[in-house]
Amino acid sequence: MRAQFVLSEIGVGLRRNLTMTFAVIVSVALSLALFGGSLLMRDQVSTMKGYWYDKVNVSIFLCNKADAEQDPKCAKGAVTNEQKDQILSDLKKMPVVEKVVHESADEAYKHYKEQFGDSPLSSSLTPDQMQESYRIKLKDPEKYQVVATAFSGRDGVQEVQDQKGYLDNLFGLLNGMNWAAVAVMALMLVVALMLIVNTVRVSAFSRRRETGIMRLVGASSFYIQMPFIMEAAVAGLIGGGLACGMLLVGRYFMIDHGLELSEKINLINFIGWDAVLAKLPLVLAIGLLMPALAAFFALRKYLKV
Questions:
Q1: What is the pLDDT of residues 78-89, one digit of tens each?
Q2: What is the mean pLDDT of the chain?
Q3: Whole-prediction pTM value?
Q4: CB-neighbour burial class of residue 93 (10 A; exposed 0-12, middle 13-18, buried 19+)
């Protein structure tokens, strides 16, 4: 097969169907940008989970005098020293527990004043109204239920609270947004495939005379199909390149510059450039192979020798 002939046919096909080729490029670019974005969003959620789950604690809040008068869970009175010692002893014996930190009522009051000193309620609170607690670092954050089962309802315990539950709501929202992006991406891929198939068929129809002559002289099906397949592949590759550019520009302006999310939202450990660069070859490969395969199967019944 002469490479010059194939390249000339590719150029002719792309120029002859310029409008549809442009539509294919845009559709492929948008769909692959959403595809790469959904992959990066999944990486971001995994990174955030690893970062935050490593920092969450399980808190055992102990009953104080105010709770004993108002909360049915503390109906037996405020926690005693013996009960606190027993809770601490049992915690240290549990294999899932990595570290236990005791926070006194005075320390809880101090931390509250540091965080919410401007709140109108802060002036009405006193240290004896604050709860003592044990802050527990687990070896595996998923093992919260082991601690909750062991200490919920115990005398002197007002509540066992898992901070991971708050994060699960956030990650659930992020995963929902990611699935929405995947759904839009799938729709765009379908649109792109339909455009590719129609573009190839129109191109084949407009060159039916040349392909008929090639059949008569004994050209193989692969030789006849190759220019059409390469046209689709080139259009898809351009679209894939645009998608890669969108991902790079999005990472640059949203996180590093422009919105500067990495500086404004210090609580989030954003994915780095290595994660973005690792997705680009996959985006380019899909941009090249998807249109080529679509064109190959679309032409099988039209250009058989």
A1: 888 888 888 888
A2: 76
A3: 0.61
A4: exposed
